[in-house]
Amino acid sequence: MINYMNQGHTLLQNANGDYYSISPYGDSNNINPYIMRDRGTTKRDGFVFSGSTYLDFTPIKELVITSRLGYRYTYSNSYGYVMPNITCSDLYQDYVSVNATSSNTTYWQWENFANYTKTFADKHNVNVMLGMSYSSNTSFGVTGGINGSRSGDKVDLGITKLDPNYAYFAFQTGTATRTVSGGEKRKYVNLSYFGRASYDYAGKYFAQFTLRADAADLSILPLQKRWGYFPAVSVGWVLSNEKFMENLKSISHLKLRASWGQNGSIAGLADYMYDATILSEINYPMSGDVSYETGSLPSATGNYDLKWETSEQIDLGIDLRMLNDRLSFGFDYYEKKTKDLIVTGITPSLIVGNTTSPMNAGNVKNSGFEFELSWRDNIKDFNYSIKGNIATLKNKVTYLHETLERIESTTSAGIGVMNYFEEGHPIWYMRGYECTGIDSQTGDPIFKDMNDDGIIGDADQTEIGSAIPDFTYGITLTAAWKGFDLTIFGSGSHGNDVFAGYNRTSRMKANTLKEFYDGRWTTAGDNAKYARSNPSNYDKYLKSSKFVFDGSYFKIKQIQLGYNLPKNLLKQIGLSNLRLYCSLDDFFTFTKYPGFDPEFTSTGSAMGLDMGSYPSSKKVVFGLNVAF
Predict the structure, then answer these.
(1) What is the pLDDT of residues 50-100, one digit of tens each?
(2) 497-500 and 609-610 as β-strands: parallel, antiparallel, unpaired?
(3) Which residues pair with 100 in a beta bridge?
(4) Among 460, 439, 457, 459, which Cα is nearest to 448's?
(5) E strands along 40-96, which residues?
(6) Pick from 106, 281, 525, 567: CA 20 to 30 A from residue 592's CA?
(7) Of 250, 241, 240, nearest to 322 (Cα)?
(8) Model-level pTM?
(9) Closest Cα partner for 64 from 118, 109, 141?
(10) C-alpha angle with apex 361: 356 to 364, nearest 5 degrees?
């Protein structure tokens, strides 16, 4: 059968008309799309109702009081079934599975704020704003399923008749497995108070102070730590409005600015992760005989000191416009420090031993420069502009709690853990074995013995790459002439590493990149770039620097050509504007990375890890913009 499929006969069917897998490998679980089309179905329906209203009240000329209320209700259902099918080349699911889900969410937000604006002596401009925000999110959902089963030669179909009309819970067989999850109502509320005071003198000197206080839901943070307070201050000086700049006619705007501020985050926390939890059904001998009693014990001691993580950023900048605003320049230096980073760590306990709980245990520093330069001009009817930007980034974990040597990222199938959070390294750097070459006689990889003990083991793993780029950049070109307009936009990244995870143990037989296939060792004496097929220390080889590549790239993200029809023609058909356009999106990528797409190689903390995700699609877009 596999040989038959190797010849390209991907529509092979059995006596029941079921399609076999599309893969030529017997252990593959690549489902044939015809199976998904013909042997199952999923139906979804629902609706969303939303709206908002507001009220403005002006008790005095300088004061505006606003109250705003927003509401959104979402309701959704889904139902599906899968008839017996051949899941892969050697696995036949000869029973029925049914699933159904129903959920609804109610969200509303109430905001109130007062805004006071006053000018004194024609030069002193003051603005003060005070406000609050309250939001509530209530959700309810339930999911159920039916599954038949096979035990030896005995098959439980799951439903009383092999017919899609019987693929419902009411026709479940007495021995089918029924699963139900959810069914509880969840409600989250958030409360915030905020204020802002700003002042400027004659359009020259600017100052602003803001403060916000945020309260998290008690399911996320404990009562004594639920509030976070985040101030910010900024100042600016417009030198171009000073008298000593009046003679510099070439400079139309020059501003110096500086800011400092904090903001908070509790992203990643789920319900009551800070609380102690109890594990039941623990068997414990209470006497000298062989009988056991069922009891409970704490499975996690919790962490009632858990609080908001805080990011603090300093920014220094210059804004400059010259030559009648044709030339613009912007420069920024930033330094961002995130402290009390929320991570999962070990909570020691003399009673139950070490357990894992979220804790504020890390600090991260980011710093760099941002530059922006643009030029715009016209030559009679031809208008054009050129705009470029570049941003550098230095990233390092500056602190990690002494109980944590390093924190592991998510586990990737066939590779394990590749990314780590560790003091002194970039955030979620790649850790593995440094491959120094390939043995020309055996074709086996050669690894660097980091601790010189003569053994290649876990202690020899080191930093082999980082997904953090040295700098990112972009460029935008525009042109317009007699109704035609052209926009070209590109962006890129330099200095970021990508780990090619295609050759993982779960795909030893398939999906090998041509780069690895052509460069592999085959004969004694070969000076090969990559090891032989299935070499010794294969597990270490797959986690080595041999699969770390330069992920630098430049993409032309969009080329768009448009045409605006003449106004005199549009008036005759009652339109104020009509624009036709054609756009080429993500058509051109320039990179040395041998994989599919260096831009899409990160999922959460697994930064720079390419497991074969689909690249961005090339798109040809035709559009029409109409205004009446």
Answers:
(1) 999 999 999 999 999 999 999 999 999 999 998 887 765 556 778 899 999
(2) parallel
(3) 79, 144
(4) 460
(5) 40-60, 63-82, 85-88, 91-93
(6) 525
(7) 250
(8) 0.83
(9) 118
(10) 135
